[in-house]
Write a structure and sequence with these properties.
heterodimer; A: about 475 residues; mainly alpha; 21 helices; about 70% helix; about 0% strand; globular; B: about 220 residues; alpha+beta; 3 helices; about 25% helix
Chain lengths: ~475, ~220
């Protein structure tokens, strides 16, 4: 505890400020967004409710149905995908009357719907505000849960700050620039301001990236290995998609061991193994608890390994899907995305802003302007990378590990996306799935600012922060326009 | 060029862009019977000479127009629209009326005369097709997207009726927006909350600008 307190005291004040801004921004998003308008929020809230009411995670999502409280908000308040919230006081009064009546059920089999497959850590965290507000009505508890979720955006900002600090140790102002670009990222605020386990996954991803960068720059110590193991464990217990980052983490640990002096290598290997073992133990505990709580095998792999997929998928189809997700489709390759170019239409446009249940967006010209901004940021970052190529050469292990983490997550999403589309004919990918890598965006912005040169760098960095703020403000305005005008 | 000036220019540009958006004038929604963003179904096919009426409609004060989503071909209408309310004698009294067409099917904005000064509840809205082609209307309950409606469930839709105000800026509707944003949320959230959000956002922007200026100045 003393070591933790000392470590917290060493956190720079700028990092705390960035974290506070990220939390405050997510809180504002949580207030502006109507209930159940964050993707899958009814089901996530249902999972929390089940866990908080029964003290155990929900079992399979059979008998899907809302609890009385959940259903009242979903049906009377017209909440959910594609919905338009009510604007009349009469509906408001009716919803409150029913929620305050105390007659509505607080649990139902299957109230967690498709989120039943997720591990329980985020929901256990959210069960705290649920229980704290137990005497309040469901909407009050939902907004308490949202507030707790928003706190996790602060961890994303802290993770980003330390990640950028490891990548650009000689440019302290760039740490703040990169972190503020992340703190104001609208999708982060929107998702973290709702009840959704992605909020914890983003925090885990940010801290994981920071730890990996630190281990590769400063070596593997007992404390870092334990911290890495605990973060891996938190990831395993939050959402299965964390697995996409594992190849990069394993590679980073292997490279860290290799970089250790021969006399210390054996110890470093044990530490690296211990970090992975902590994560693996969490996974095993989750599997064991699954059988204890009568959760099916589907809940371990989020349904990805379902038997039915074998008949409708193939390796060539998977390669085709992966290729056409990120590269232009050459003649001869089938269109497996229903005319959607995943890299642009889903990931980049979604990063700029597609809100609600991934349903409404800015006018098309906004994305064209954003493409120019992306190009400028990318160009400046590349310029800096080229100028400092001697440094980059020395830091190949970091680059390689980070690139593997990115590739791992993208490949996992393409793997799942292919199966999901084959079975349902609905696109799976969404930009929010990439946000565990959000610190990389902060690093790119910081690198771009440095790429503007010694004279212009700080001004460009500050301007990029203003741009991030403007982006967030207009995104919030878009959400207000969609639901309230 | 100092960093301060660059930031000041960026903030000024952002504020100008916000002002530009907020001052744009157009008819705004005063209310709607729709519970969805987009409709899957066409309801109420009204043949030539036919009449379609639906009751229990609430029309907010300040309404001077109606937006509907029609189908039926390149040239539909004319279609007459009448808005009536029950009177004390048990009959119906016309509150406002309007018409559209002949015109291609699609989104139709119909001027209502006279404008609705006081809110009307339980109104009857009728469409009379004076054209030669059948006219259809988009529904108000069944969502369009597969993601929102994976089982393609059909609700019992009415025709979607979006009630419109005369042209006004976003800024002029801020009071209504704040009131709507305070509904069906936690009990501590109300009309005041959106104003508080704006103040908090201003404070956050200021904090971020001060922070970044302080850091680059070191």
């Amino acid at each position: 505890v003393r070591a933790l307190a000392a470590a917290l005291r060493r956190v720079p004040r700028a990092a705390w400020w960035c974290a506070a801004i990220a939390v405050a921004n997510a809180l504002l998003w949580s207030v502006v967004t109507p209930p159940f308008q964050v993707p899958d929020e009814p089901s996530h809230a249902g999972y929390v409710q089940f866990l908080a009411e029964h003290g155990k995670p929900p079992t399979d999502s059979v008998n899907r149905g809302y609890s009385g409280e959940q259903g009242t908000v979903a049906n009377l308040a017209w909440a959910g995908s594609e919905a338009k919230p009510p604007w009349t006081r009469a509906v408001d009064r009716e919803v409150r009357k029913q929620l305050d009546s105390g007659k509505l059920s607080r649990s139902a089999a299957g109230e967690s719907g498709p989120t039943t497959n997720y591990p329980p850590l985020y929901y256990a965290y959210e069960a705290v505000p649920y229980r704290l507000g137990y005497g309040l009505n469901f909407l009050d508890r939902l907004y308490l849960m949202r507030m707790f979720s928003a706190l996790l955006a602060g961890l994303v900002a802290l993770g980003t700050f330390f990640f950028v600090r490891e990548l650009l140790p000689g440019t302290p102002w760039a740490w703040t620039v990169g972190t503020l670009a992340v703190a104001w990222q609208p999708l982060l605020g929107f998702v973290s301001g709702g009840v959704n386990n992605d909020a914890l996954l983003y925090a885990v991803g940010a801290v994981l990236l920071a730890l990996v960068a630190r281990v590769l720059r400063r070596g593997l110590t007992t404390r870092r290995a334990v911290a890495l193991g605990l973060v891996l464990a938190a990831g395993v217990l939050t959402k299965q998609s964390i697995v996409g980052l594992f190849p990069g983490v394993v590679l980073a640990l292997a490279l860290a061991v290799r970089a250790t002096s021969p006399g210390q290598r054996r110890r470093a290997a044990v530490l690296a193994g211990s970090a992975l073992a902590i994560g693996a133990l969490a996974g095993l505990a989750y599997i064991a608890a699954g059988s204890l709580y009568d959760r099916s095998s589907q809940s371990l792999n989020a349904g990805i390994g379902a038997q039915g997929y074998a008949a409708i998928t193939s390796w060539s189809g998977q390669v085709n899907y992966l290729w056409t997700s990120f590269l232009p489709r050459p003649p001869g390759l089938a269109d497996t995305h229903g005319g959607v170019f995943v890299l642009w239409d889903v990931y980049l446009k979604g990063f700029v802003g597609i809100f609600g249940w991934f349903e409404f967006s800015f006018k098309p010209w906004v994305y064209d302007v954003a493409a120019v901004v992306f190009a400028v940021i990318g160009g400046l970052a590349l310029r800096e990378a080229w100028t400092r190529r001697d440094v980059l050469r020395r830091r190949r292990p970091e680059l390689l590990s980070l690139a593997t983490m990115v590739a791992g997550l993208l490949a996992l999403l393409a793997y799942v996306g292919y199966r999901y589309r084959a079975a349902s004919h609905i696109g799976f990918e969404q930009a929010r799935y990439l946000l565990p890598l959000l610190p990389l965006w902060g690093a790119l912005v910081a690198l771009a600012a440095r790429g503007a040169g010694r004279r212009w760098g700080p001004a460009v960095g500050a301007l990029l922060v203003v741009l991030a703020i403007a982006h967030s403000l207009f995104s919030m305005l878009l959400v207000v326009q969609r639901y309230y005008t | 060029v100092t960093v301060n000036r660059v930031v000041a220019a960026g903030v000024a540009l952002t504020l100008a862009a916000l002002a530009l958006v907020l001052l744009q004038r157009a008819p705004r929604l005063t209310g709607s019977n729709a519970k969805i963003a987009g409709s899957l179904v066409d309801v109420a096919a009204v043949g030539s000479g036919g009449v379609r009426c639906q009751g229990h409609e609430d029309i907010p004060a300040g309404t001077s127009g109606l937006r509907i989503f029609t189908g039926g071909g390149r040239r539909i209408g004319p279609v007459l629209v009448t808005v009536s309310r029950p009177d004390a004698a048990g009959g119906l009294r016309t509150v406002a009326s309007g018409r559209f067409g002949p015109a291609p099917a699609g989104v139709k904005r119909i001027s209502l005369s006279p404008a609705v000064g006081r809110p009307v509840s339980g109104a009857l809205v009728c469409f009379t097709n004076r054209g030669t082609r059948t006219v259809t209307f988009a529904g108000n309950l069944t969502p369009a997207s597969l993601g929102a409606n994976p089982d393609q469930h059909r609700f019992v839709d009415d025709a979607r009726l979006d009630w419109l105000s005369p042209p006004r800026s976003w800024a002029a509707t801020a009071g209504s927006v704040a009131r709507r944003a305070g509904l069906v949320k936690a009990s501590w959230i109300g009309t005041w909350t959106l104003w508080a959000v704006i103040v908090a956002l201003a404070a956050l922007v200021a904090a971020s600008v001060v922070l970044v200026l302080r850091e680059v100045d070191r």
